[in-house]
Amino acid sequence: MNKFELKNLSTKEKIGQLIMAGFHGTEVNDDVRMLIRDYKVGNIILFARNIVSPKQLFELNKELQKIAMEEIGIPLYISIDQEGGMVSRIQDGATFFPGAMTIAATNKLAYAYQVGDLMGKELINLGVNMDLAPILDINNNPRNPVIGVRSYADTPELVSLYANATIKGLQNSIVATAKHFPGHGDTTVDSHLGLPTVTKTRSELEKFEFKPFRSAINEGVQAIMSAHINFTDLTEGVPATLSKKVLTDLLRGEMGFDGLIVTDALEMKAIDTHYGAVEASLMTLNAGANLLCICHDLPYQTGAADRIEKALATGELTMETLDERVERILRYKKMLKPIDFNVTYEDVKALVENDETKALAAKICEEAVTLIKGEPIKLSNNALLVTTLPKATTIADDTDGGSTLTRKVKKEIPFLDILEIAVSPTDAEMEEVIEKAKGYDQVIYTTYNGNVYQSQINLVDKLATLNKDLHILALRNPYDLYYTKAIKNYVAFYEYTPNSNDAVIKYLKGELIPTGKAPIKYE
After folding, report:
1. CA torsion sign, 8 to 21 to 222 to 189?
2. For position 399, which CATH number holds?
3. Which GO terms describe its biological process (predicted)?
4. Residue 129: which CATH number?
5. Is 180 a residue of the active site?
6. Among the options 192, 323, 398, 461, which is catalytic?
C-alpha cells in the first residue's frame, strides 16, 4: 500500500503526520516508541540533549526511522535547530559550523552557500532531513534578547542575500526552514519567555520584515517557521502562529508560499501561558500550519493529538482542512531520498567527520573577526584578561558556563593573567576587577551580550576611567558601542564557539589581522 497517498491513511495516521515531537534521552525510549506506535507521530525534533556523538546520532535516527516504517510506512521528518554558531545542537565530532552574522561578517557570499551545502550533507548523512534554519529575521533592534548574531545583518538586502545562499546549499540535501515569519528581529521580548508585540504598520513590514521571506519564497524555500509574535496591524491581538490572516491569507495567499508551514515550539510561554499548548495546536492547524512543534512534554504531545481528533468530532476542525494540511506534508515527504537501512556509520564517517570541512569553518571564523573601532591589540607583557563566562541568553542556546577560552589562553599565552567574571557582574565583582586592573598596563575585556547583560557596560565604563590600554572583544552580540562612548578599541568575534575562541587566541598573539566587515551599522 502506498502510504504517501492520503486516501490510504487512517484519521489517526493523518493527525500523527502533523506532530513534530521532541523527547528526552540519547536512545529510543518508551515514550517516543509509544508516540510513533500508538499515536502514529510522523516527525521528530532533536536537541543537544539527544546527542552524544555523530555515531550515536546516526544510530538513533536509523532506529527511529525503522520504527516509523514498521508502524506507519512513511518516513519521519527528523528536524534539528542547526543554525551554526550559538545555536548548534551537534557540537562534538562533526563540524562546528559558524553562525549567521559570523558568515556575513566575512563579506563573502560564497561562504553562505558552502556552509549550507556542507551542513546539509553532514545532516543527511547523520539521518537528519530537515534543518530548522536559517534565520531570516533582520536584527535591527540592538536590544533584541533572542536573535542578535543569529541574524545575518540589520538590513533586508543583506539578510536576503546570505539566507538565500544558505537555503540553496542546504536544499541540495535536506529541507531548509526560513524563520521566524513574519520577523523576530525588531523585538525586545524573547518569545520563549513572553509574548512580544510589534506595532509596525503593514506598509513598514512590507518594506522591511517581509522582504527576506518574499525573497526566500521566490527562491524556492521548502519550509517556513512561524513566530509567536503579536503584530498589531496583522494579527488582531493573537500571535502570528495562531493567525489565519498571517499563515493562510498572507503567507499562502498573498506571498504564494506553497511549502510547509512549521510552528515554533508550542510550549514556549508566548503561546502556552496565554492559550495552552494543546489548545493552540488546534488553533494553529486551523490557521494554516502543517507541522506542529511540541518539543518537550509527552502530555502536550498526546493531548494535542487527542484534541485534534476531538475537534473533528465536534466540527471545530473539518476533515477537508486536515486533509489539506496532511496532503502537503506527504507531497514533500515523497521528495525525500529513500532510506537505506544497510548503510552503516563507517560508510558516512568520512563525510561527517571531515577535516576539510572543519578547516573551512575555522577559516570563516577567522576571516569574520572585525576591528570596529581603534587599533589592533599589541599584547603587553603586563596585561590582564577579564573574560566573561558565557551563559545561555535564551532557551534556544546551547552554550552555558563553559570556560573554553580560559583553558586555551592558559595553554597558549601562559604569561597572560586571567580573571573570570559572571555574565552579570555585581558591584562587588566589578570593584574586584577594577582593583586588580590597576596593577596592569593593558586590560582586555571579553564581553558577552552586553546589550542584554548591561552591567557589563557599566564595567566597561569603570575600566575606561583607569586610563589603561583597554581593548574590548565582543564574543557574541557586537552592540556594546550602542551603550557607551568609553570604548576606544573594539573587535567583534560574533560567537563563543571553539573556532571563535581559537581566533581570539590568534588575535591576541598577533597572528590574526582582523579583515571582517560588520554587517550592522553603528550610529
Report:
1. positive
2. 3.40.50.1700
3. carbohydrate metabolic process; peptidoglycan turnover
4. 3.20.20.300
5. no
6. 192
